Structure formats: C-alpha cells, structure tokens
C-alpha cells in the first residue's frame, strides 16, 4: 500500500496529462518521434494502426499498460449448480476446486477456458458484499470483469485524472496481486476491477 | 441451417447421454481407454486433472468443444463516450472503427485486448433489440458474453438434452459464423451467445 502511494507520487511527476485522442479511425499518424519524448502533441495518440502499435507502446508506458481480460465474475446463489452448468453442460474441462475467501465474503470457483476465465462467486452469508447484487438480479448474473494492468499506480493516476472514481483504495486481491475497483457509474455501468500483473 | 439440423440428427445418434460428472476435485481418474470409445462409465469424466486433459479431449468431442470467451458485449447509449473511455482513459490501442449492423439494430465497436475482446454496442433506434436493456440498466452495462465452440450443432444438442432453452434458432451472426443465444434464465442469469469457430 505504501509502495503504491509512493509510486503514484512518482508517476504524477513523470506522466504529463494529455488531451483526449481525436476519434478518427481513418487517420494515419506519422511515425513516432522518440527523440522528443514525452511528445504532448495530441495527434501523436493515433487511432488504431497495426503498423505503429509496437512503436507507440515503446514510447508511452500508458499505451502498453492495459492487459487481457483476466476473468468474468458471475454471482450465483448455488455454486454447485453453476459448476454443473459449466462442466457438464458446457463442457469445460478445467474447473478449479471450491475456495473460501472469507475476507471477500464469497466461495469462488474458476473455470479456465484457455484465455479469459469465468469466476463463479457464491455469497458465504447475508453479510457478503455481493449479497445486494441479488436484489436487482434474483437469478444471479455477471457481477464484474477483471482486467490486467502492468502498472496499477499508473492506471489509478490515469483514471483519477479523468474523473473516474474508484471504490475504496487499492488493496491486495484474492490472488495476492494489487487490485482496485472502479465505480461502475463512471465506466458505462460496468464494474471493472484492475489487477496488477507485471 | 439445413446443414445444422442434419448435423444435430447425426450427433443425436452418435453422442450417448451421460450421467453428470461427480464433483470431486481430489479424484484422479485412470487413463482413458480409447479402445472402448464411447465409454459411458461416468467415472471417465474427470474433475480437472492437467495430466489427462489432452487425452480426454481426444476421446470425447464434447470435452474439446468449448473454446475461449470471444468477447464481452457492453451496451451503451453513447458509443463515442465509450470509445473515449476505453481508448483514452483505459489505454486500449486496438479500437476498431464504428460499424453499423442494421440486422441487429446496433452500432458496434470492438476493443481488442489481445485475448477476449470488448464489444461496444449502441442501439440504432428505439426498435433495437437491445433498447429494452436500458430500462433495467439506465447507464448501460454488460449485455452478454460470446463464447466460441468448435461445433455449434453439438453444443445445441448438449444444451437441449440438459433443458437449457435457446432464444430462437441458430443463425449466421455479425461475423459470418453460425451463432445461437441461450436463455439467461437457464444459464445463471447470464445471456450467453455461442459462436462456431472450427
């Protein structure tokens, strides 16, 4: 935690705020000029162009920070029934054992589909943080998605600079990596967890 | 479509219904006996054991049918704002142009995160099939997930055999591949689209 706070302070100095990228998918940017880094010219944040992807990633750490979708978390009232659905009906072969996470108030099971995983979550009791989810979603459903970032402090700084609120402070998640939850009201209705994987 | 129906009929004969796999993650199954395929002994559907994963996949086509999560579909009222969020705030570098899918009543944009993609969807007008979603989710949110299968007819047969209803018949999806939607009431509150990728 102290390390994260310190890192944010360092990044605050190093990363200059930029203007938003213009939304223009036909735009072909010139090659990046690494001699002038950091280049604050907004035209240097391109619309997607495969030819420049790696070049840009090497210039701006922000553009290589976002990783894969780690998992999709599904809230369920009956985790055994959900295991049955994913293993016996859908045919998933890599289903973890049931784990108890008392600090998050849930039982969890991971369904590994090769890339993004499915995380099944059942509240341990009524006090579980996910119990309220079932009031709006009586049959359960997708609760949140978890996305990897290579530098959580950088991601926190970038979201704060853009008025994206987080839910609480960065903590150590169930897998032992630093995580933070972003406020779904600022993320198009999607509860997003960011998890640091260097 | 006719090909799919014919395939289902063939698979109905070939695939014997099995008992559900016992939920026991400590169980180490014996090596599969390929000479006796199809082996209907329920102990031959193991809890996940990496040592036997490939061996089993070669025995039962059902256990190699389920693929990766192709994308997470997010419904938004303002796709330009969502593009801004994913590209400029989150740092996604591979964002597609805005596509119009009149047959599905949506504008779509794909955010490629290397593995599972984010699919942004904005209704074209009030008649769009996803317009109703915003009554329960005014700010938008995760609408459905799309999972690859290698054989859609086999997946349809397996879900039907287990009383999982589908929403309509298999059709050709926006990417030109056969797709089907499963009823979220039978899938733990999750709207699942299956897309065939051979």
Number of discrete domains of chain A: 2
The proportion of residues forming helix of chain A, as a percent range, comes to: 10-25%
* Biggest interface and residues each: A-B, 67 and 65 residues
Largest sheet of chain A: 9 strands, mixed
Count all strands of chain A and give the number.
9
CATH level-1 class of the largest domain in chain A: Alpha Beta
CATH architectural category of the largest domain in chain A: Roll
Class per helix and strand makeup of chain A? alpha+beta
- Oligomeric state of the chains present here: homodimer
List unreliable stretches of 5+ residues of chain A.
8-47
How large, in whole angstroms, is the Cα Rg of chain A?
20 Å
Q: So how many helices of chain A?
A: 5
Order of helices and strands of chain A: HHEHEEEEHEHEEE
CATH-defined topology of the largest domain in chain A = 2,3-Dihydroxybiphenyl 1,2-Dioxygenase, domain 1
Q: State the CATH superfamily name of the largest domain in chain A.
A: 2,3-Dihydroxybiphenyl 1,2-Dioxygenase, domain 1
Distance between the termini of chain A: 16 Å
Shape of chain A: globular
> What percent strand of chain A?
25-35%
- Calculate the mean pLDDT score of chain A and round it: 79
Strand-helix topology:
The structure is a homodimer of 198-residue chains.
Chain A: H1 2-14, H2 50-59, E1 66-75, H3 79-89, E2 94-95, E3 99-101, E4 106-112, E5 117-123, H4 133-136, E6 141-149, H5 152-161, E7 166-172, E8 178-182, E9 192-196
Parallel strand pairs in A: 1-5, 6-9
Antiparallel strand pairs in A: 1-6, 2-4, 3-4, 4-5, 7-8, 8-9
Helix pairs in contact in A: 1-5
């Amino acid at each position: 935690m102290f390390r994260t706070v310190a890192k944010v302070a360092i990044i605050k100095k190093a990363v200059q705020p930029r203007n938003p990228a213009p939304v223009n998918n036909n735009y072909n940017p010139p090659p990046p000029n690494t001699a002038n880094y950091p280049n604050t010219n907004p035209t240097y944040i391109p619309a997607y162009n495969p030819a420049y992807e790696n070049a840009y990633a090497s210039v701006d750490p922000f553009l290589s920070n976002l990783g894969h979708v780690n998992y999709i978390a599904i809230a369920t009232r009956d985790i055994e029934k959900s295991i049955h659905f994913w293993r016996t009906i859908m045919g998933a072969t890599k289903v973890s054992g049931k784990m108890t996470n008392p600090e998050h108030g849930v039982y969890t099971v991971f369904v590994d589909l090769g890339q993004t995983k499915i995380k099944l979550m059942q509240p341990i009791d009524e006090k579980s943080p996910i119990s309220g989810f079932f009031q709006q979603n009586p049959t359960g459903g997708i609760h949140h998605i978890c996305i990897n970032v290579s530098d959580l402090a950088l991601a926190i700084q970038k979201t704060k600079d853009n008025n994206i609120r987080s839910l609480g402070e960065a903590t150590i998640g169930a897998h032992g990596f630093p995580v933070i939850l972003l406020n779904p009201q600022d993320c198009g209705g999607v509860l997003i967890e960011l998890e640091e994987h260097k």
